[in-house]
Design a protein that fits this description.
The structure is a homodimer. The first copy, chain A, has about 210 residues and is of the alpha/beta class. Chain A folds into two domains: about 5-80, Winged helix-like DNA-binding domain superfamily/Winged helix DNA-binding domain (Arc Repressor Mutant, subunit A, Orthogonal Bundle), CATH 1.10.10.10; about 85-195, Rossmann fold (3-Layer(aba) Sandwich), CATH 3.40.50. Chain A is built from eight helices and nine strands. A seven-stranded mixed β-sheet of chain A has the order 5-6-4-3-7-8-9. A two-stranded antiparallel sheet of chain A has the order 1-2. In chain A, strand 5 (about 125) and strand 6 form a beta hairpin. The radius of gyration of chain A is 20 Å and the shape is elongated. The mean pLDDT of chain A is about 95. Chains A and B meet through helix 1, helix 5, strand 7, strand 9 and helix 8 of A and helix 1, helix 5, strand 7, strand 9 and helix 8 of B. Chain B binds a DNA duplex (30 and 30 nucleotides) through helix 1 and helix 3.
DNA sequence: TAGGAATCGATAAAAAAATATCGATTGAGG
DNA sequence: CCTCAATCGATATTTTTTTATCGATTCCTA
């Protein structure tokens, strides 16, 4: 993949550019310059130019800037949104069910096909998406070629659930469980600590004087 | 605040250390060395030592390492979890309601006091937490000294809701709305694009060969 | 049609962060 | 009680990321 040349930090900015550009496109803007983007997004213009140079399929035009629609396509391609991936939710609590029925994933090439829960009370379906008992995780995940798992169980159940996901062949896990979990080599784990994110936001805001 | 000397990247690692240490503490471990942490967390030992040196109130002991309990306290203090902050949820959909009743925030010094929604159908309460109509946002936020807002509305309502939050005196916003929103100077905004996070996870995992 | 203003992209410099190296310290084992 | 092995913390180096500078390009306007 040629993306290895793209810096990690830049990669994290891409989704933000994408949203910005979509907002501009919706407003009827055809061309946008690095300087404009930089100003609106509170970034340095040079940084924006460098980032865009990494993904833009055709160079920006002096005096005009970049074609918005074109840039959106380039970004989506660079981000891999044109690829289709099956995902599942493990832990059908409030948060898990929110993910299960959230319809915003499809634009990103992600299809949440099912949820799993250890409690029989949760088993059933929600908005047409099935909720299975945990025992069927491996069977369904293999059948549906699920490679991505969203972990939304209580902290004390996190490690066991995580192990089950790995066992089921899931290779990328996004965990919202408030616990430290280990995964074997070859499995990508990202932990989203919502409370910690909030807390860091507070201290960031506190620095604004 | 003396935290300005702490690197941004290190600050992001602190919550992960904290979780790890709590897991160790729960397992009865009293002392832990940088090398152990590094190995378990897939980091460089030097990096861990440097990070811990930033927060540890007393130096680590050669041959033993750091006192786990002590380190937990130091990290929590550095992260500001001992301060109390009031937060509110704007948008009482599935995701918003999940945040409203989530009981994991208190350990981080965050108290979610209420939710707001534009739809009268959502108004009421959930697990003792009130859900008010949007019109009362300013009144309640000011009364309860709410400085932190969690934005969980549909994309097309995001900017308006965000403006209302700013108007109500909220200075830090964590947005889960799939849209690009602008905030005035002095307001801290963090966007959590769940779908984009998932998508980035996929491509990260895809690089593992 | 020609000048000018603003943008681009490339190269270079600066800043930040991660990693490596090394002597000093200290608890454990003989 | 003394040696050994492992850890710490500090300094130095490398790598990564961001910011600055500058000539070339090209679209708008007169």
């Amino acid at each position: 993949m040629e993306r290895s040349e793209i810096s990690k930090a830049a990669y994290l900015r891409f989704p933000v550019y994408l949203r910005y550009l979509k907002a501009e496109a919706a407003a009827g803007v055809e061309y946008v310059s690095s300087s404009e983007i930089a100003e609106d997004m509170h970034l340095s213009a040079v940084c924006v130019r460098k980032d865009l140079a990494l993904v833009a399929s055709e160079p920006g035009k002096p005096r005009l800037g970049f074609a918005v629609e074109k840039l959106i396509c380039d970004l989506e391609r660079a981000l891999g949104y044109h690829l289709k991936t099956h995902a599942c939710v493990v832990g059908a609590g409030r948060l898990g069910r929110a993910f299960l029925v959230y319809d915003g994933f499809e634009h990103y090439g992600i299809d949440v096909v099912a949820a799993f829960d250890i409690s029989p009370a949760q088993v059933g379906a929600l908005s047409g998406k099935p909720i299975y008992p945990m025992e069927r995780l491996k069977e369904i995940a293999e059948r549906e070629r699920v490679k991505l798992g969203i972990l939304t169980v209580p902290g004390d159940a996190a490690q066991a659930a995580c192990d089950a996901m790995v066992e089921a062949g899931i290779t990328a896990i996004l965990s919202f469980a408030p616990a430290y979990v280990r995964v074997p080599e070859g499995v990508t784990l990202r932990c989203e600590d919502l409370a910690a994110t909030l807390a860091s936001l507070i201290s960031e805001a506190g620095e604004h004087h």
